Amino acid sequence: MFSLPLKPTIPFTSPASKPLNPPPKCCKSQPQTERGLSFDIGDTFFRHESSTGRDLGVLSAAIYKKSHNALRVLDAMCGCGVRSLRYLVEANADFVLANDANQEYGGVISGNLEKADMEKKRWAVKHLDASRLLTECYLERDYYDLIDVDSFGSESSYLRAAMCAVKLDGLLYVTSTDGYSSGGHRPQHNFLSRSTLAAYGAYVRHMPYSNEIGLRMLIGGAVREASVLGYHVVPLFSYYSYHGPIFRAMLQVRCGKFPIERDYSFISYCIQCGNSRAFSWDKLGQMRCSCNDVPGSLIVSGPLWTGPLHSSSFLSEMLSLAEEWGWTGNGTGKHIGALLKTMIDESDPVLPFGYINMDEIASRAKVNSPPINSLLRALDKEGYATSRSHIASNAIKTNCPMVDCVRLVKELRRSSVTADEKLHSVIEA
Ligand SMILES: C[S@@+](CC[C@H](N)C(=O)[O-])C[C@H]1O[C@@H](n2cnc3c(N)ncnc32)[C@H](O)[C@@H]1O
Ligand SMILES: [Zn+2]
């Protein structure tokens, strides 16, 4: 029905002859713990900062297991195998296939997974190129409920094979760590390399909310691949972390095409007025901002995912489970609770894509930036929808046009100056 690449689209040297990473100089033990689970990282690639991405993956997997009563996971780029271990123990996966192209990691991965199941009944380890493994799974009709591909850079060549190897209605957890490209710094740079155009089919220019654009580019790339196969994807959550930076999306792969032009279009930002909007495909060639007739005032990127970044009902389930597991109380778990709550707020369907940085409003208003909560309250009072952004701590999401944000910031500034003057006169009196 659909075509798969017969060989990886990027040259891949068999790990038997040349590992992707240089072989470890020694194999000393380096014990770690995460969410109370002990594991060893040896000389594998491991980042403690990625633990939130792992938490989100495990919560999603556990919710899937509860609703489907089955969970087979393929951890395609597993490093030391910490995710595989967590999927086995915390999400109670029935089976996990842990793969890393670097065969030098084998001992560390197996050692960690034995902690969950000494008899090796619920897991296996492989050392193949991810695309090759995913293709083999598809050819053998060995489909998985959740496929996690924790890749580097803007690697996307595995996407087609992953879509083929995941069960319908199953989950695909994808990653990009190429913040430089998604920030619009090299839209067409070397088309045959992994530019955004080659990797995700999107021409990305620098915009004030470039890290959200990075998420929309990653999801857009998956939308395109899914559509080729007659599928569509639904983002359950999208997560940006400045460590790396890392862009992640948990996608549910569903059968049936959806009209690709819906929620997959172009995003513009007007440097003149600061407003953003989406342009559908039939408006190509007619793009201009209603604020002016200045040619070149619009910065346009696309095609990108312009639909919702998250499913609020799925996030609410994740939050309830995180609370049930004691991950959201005071102490180390607090962060995940706050993150999920912000993501739920961001999912308000009235809110447009993008976020507005407080500094941009202050600079357009030519005043110092007010406290973010004062502006949110003022917007709320005027009936606008608002939320914080999980991507940028000093930014807001709102359906209020920039011109009114600027007016409100000026008003807030004036009232704070008047309050200061009153206080002074009371002190002086
Ligand atoms: C970001 S690290 C994985 C970290 C791990 N998932 C975690 O949460 O700690 C990416 C891993 O992918 C492996 N890798 C790189 N290219 C690969 C490929 N084409 N196929 C399979 N594994 C690959 C690397 O050896 C590396 O261990
Ligand atoms: Zn404009």
TrEMBL record:
Residues 13-33 are annotated as: Disordered. Its EC number is 2.1.1.216. It is an enzyme of class 2 (transferase). Pfam families: TRM. Gene3D superfamilies: N2,N2-dimethylguanosine tRNA methyltransferase, C-terminal domain (3.30.56.70), Vaccinia Virus protein VP39 (3.40.50.150). The keyword S-adenosyl-L-methionine applies. InterPro entries: SAM-dependent_MTases_sf (IPR029063), Trm1 (IPR002905), tRNA_met_Trm1_C (IPR042296). Coiled coil: none annotated. The keyword S-adenosyl-L-methionine applies. It catalyses: guanosine(26) in tRNA + 2 S-adenosyl-L-methionine = N(2)-dimethylguanosine(26) in tRNA + 2 S-adenosyl-L-homocysteine + 2 H(+). Keywords: Methyltransferase, RNA-binding, S-adenosyl-L-methionine, Transferase, tRNA processing, tRNA-binding. Belongs to the class I-like SAM-binding methyltransferase superfamily. Trm1 family. This is tRNA (guanine(26)-N(2))-dimethyltransferase. It comes from Rehmannia glutinosa.
